[in-house]
Amino acid sequence: xxxxxxxxxxxxxxxxxxxxxxxxxxxxxxxxxxxxxxxxxxxxxxxxxxxxxxxxxxxxxxxxxxxxxxxxxxxxxxxxxxxxxxxxxxxxxxxxxxxxxxxxxxxxxxxxxxxxxxxxxxxxxxxxxxxxxxxxxxxxxxxxxxxxxxxxxxxxxxxxxxxxxxxxxxxxxxxxxxxxxxxxxxxxxxxxxxxxxxxxxxxxxxxxxxxxxxxxxxxxxxxxxxxxxxxxxxxxxxxxxxxxxxxxxxxxxxxxxxxxxxxxxxxxxxxxxxxxxxxxxxxxxxxx
Length: 288
Hints:
- The chain is of the alpha+beta class and 288 residues long.
- It has a single domain, classed as 4-Layer Sandwich (Double-stranded beta-helix), CATH 3.60.130.10.
- Helices cover 23% and strands 24% of the residues.
- The protein is built from 7 helices and 15 strands.
- The protein has a 7-stranded mixed sheet, with helices on one face. Strands 12-6-14 form a 3-stranded antiparallel sheet.
- It is globular.
- The N and C termini lie far apart (51 Å).
């Protein structure tokens, strides 16, 4: 059986495409290989109208590699159906933190490879997800800036990024933090310029978790990292997606930053995230 033909419509940005003509729950191996190739090219693929259940989403995500975690809600809706909007609560602080540009799991020893994300309940306004092309951002840097950042690295810490928005959770009696990633005691040190392990492209590697560039004063480090994020997140290197229930996206976490956009948190928003684990060699970063 040959690969199923499908349509790839590029976004009005330096990356990303909308893919139609496929049912993700029914992909044969040849068709998936073509989807994977398009994913490496575009870094973000959007599949409208899929309405995947948990098992189908996890099965699709696992075709991209081993899983960091299978299926997690990104939601302000409690299991009993009530709405969580109290900004003092841990879950809300996590959602608020996600509004800053970042790459997933850069604060872990092994950075994530990518993610599959699905929309189940969305607000009428707000709650979009944005992505930012770190390949095109590097390509657009001037020669002087490229030379300046080529040897530089930064620490990455979820403690650091959450503390910046006023959230510093306390550990439980066993000394373990409830929030994923908070129990990393030695922040990894990652280069500001990353080489994509599959495409060979150079990319910026910054985001809200990055801080403390060795060799720079704290103020200079903060200013440099902030300027690189701001530069990266300029058109045509950004795209914000307005969700419709049933939408599924898969993005290359090595090539893109992403962020959530605010919404009225008295309104429900239910998304599900399947995080694809990074290669333990290519995505590993040790502490200094």
